[in-house]
Amino acid sequence: MAQEEVQNGGPEKVAEVSFTALKPQLMVEAPKAADAVQFYKSAFGAVEAGRTVYPKRKAEQEQPHVLSSQLELAGSTILVSDIADNSTPVKTDGTGCVLCLETEDVEAAVAKAVSAGGVAEGEVTEGDGACCGGRVGKVKDPYGYVWLICSPAKKCGDAEA
Amino acid sequence: MAQEEVQNGGPEKVAEVSFTALKPQLMVEAPKAADAVQFYKSAFGAVEAGRTVYPKRKAEQEQPHVLSSQLELAGSTILVSDIADNSTPVKTDGTGCVLCLETEDVEAAVAKAVSAGGVAEGEVTEGDGACCGGRVGKVKDPYGYVWLICSPAKKCGDAEA
User: Fold this and answer.
1) What angle do CA A43, A138, B99 make, to 5 degrees?
2) Of chain A residues 118-157, which have a CB less than 8 A from chain B?
3) Over the stretch A75-88, which tens digit does the pLDDT of each residue have?
4) Domain A22-87 identical in fold to domain A91-154
5) How far away is chain B from the Cα of A50, in angstroms, using its nearest Cα?
6) Between chains, do B24 and A98 touch, taking CB under 8 Å as contact?
7) CATH for B22-87?
8) Which of B17, B82, B151 to mutate to test the interface with A (most CBs of A within 10 A)?
9) Which stretch is the leader sequence (chains A, B) (predicted)?
10) Which residue has the higher pLDDT, B39 or B95?
11) Could B152 and A20 be called an inter-chain contact, meaning their C-beta atoms sit closer than 8 Å?
């Protein structure tokens, strides 16, 4: 039981594994992914680097569902995908994943996101943001995701010296 | 109504806003964030770059809740935070945020994550991953988050030429 040496010829033990990229993938109720991509462009200036779509299955379907749209945002890549009712559920049951975006101008970023259709939750506040920065605003997008718009992270502890 | 020009002296209209970083923040039911950090280290080789904690409030509390742990992983930063029952809910109601990790060795990465306490969901499959890569495995971590372990993204379309 306690010995699991390499019994079934696994991939050379569980040695070094290195990861080349981390990409949050936002699942959106089909067929709203295309709209979500448009929102992330308008709200945050995301740039779409590519998109793959499912084969069109239904005659009445106006546009094919998005398997994955790759969006460049703040030096990272996020993926936006349609998830249909009948597809394998990928719903996480974690307490919730939030996306922190750092910017020098929190107020302007929140205003821009709101003008694109996001909903500001609460005021921009100073301080105890988990991003460890200065000012923090919160915007919920039309697809249910929460974005924290934060001042760039500083070394913790030197808040308002 | 339709005129909103710059009525209340907003921050110089809603001009250019640039973002310097995007950091997914995983909320974990308090006080499990510290355990989650340990899991992400063991499972994925994440490196903790910093941690801020809440002031200790309760005598019986063994360790202070984590406001934010900054983990370096695959060239990105993720934040892991305790979220207490009585704190402002940040729960997103999106259809679900999944984290795609790209690696050359999907099988080894899945095996390592499973040996650290993750649960593999289904087999590693070839193909239609939303990450647009070759092989894709899925691991749910003990905190409810789903990780897709994928081959590095290629240009879409040249799958198995």
Assistant:
1) 75
2) 128, 130-132, 138, 140, 143-146, 148, 152-153, 155-156
3) 999 999 998 765 55
4) yes
5) 8
6) yes
7) 3.10.180.10
8) B17
9) none
10) B39
11) yes
Report the chain B residue with the minimal C-alpha distance to residue A106. B17
Asked if the model's pLDDT at residue B78 lies above 60, the reply is yes
Structure confidence at residue B3 (pLDDT)? 46
Residue B153, pLDDT score: 82
Residue-level length of chain A: 161
- Best of A5, A22, A52 to disrupt the B interface (most B CBs within 10 Å) is A22
Three-state DSSP class for residue B80: strand
Per-domain boundaries in chain A: 22-87, 91-154
Closest among B18, B5, B110 to A106, alpha carbons compared: B18
To which CATH superfamily is domain B91-154 assigned? 2,3-Dihydroxybiphenyl 1,2-Dioxygenase, domain 1 (3.10.180.10)
SS3 content of chain B, % helix, strand, coil (to 5): 15, 35, 50
The residue-averaged pLDDT of B84-90 equals 58
Measured CA distances, A70 to A50, B11, B19, B25 (Å): 5, 31, 17, 20
Q: How much is the pLDDT for A16? A: 82
Considering only CB atoms, B17 lies closest to which of A14, A108, A144, namely A108
Residue A126 CA, chain-centre distance (Å), reads 24
Give the mean model confidence (pLDDT) for residues A103-118: 96
Determine the pLDDT at residue B54: 84
CA distance B24 to B43: 18
pLDDT in tens, B97-147: 899 999 999 999 999 999 999 999 999 988 655 555 689 999 999 998 999
Which band of pLDDT confidence, cut at 50, 70 and 90, is reported for residue B73?
A: very high
Q: Is B116 on the interface with A (CB under 8 A)?
A: no
Q: Does B29 touch chain A (CB under 8 A)?
A: yes
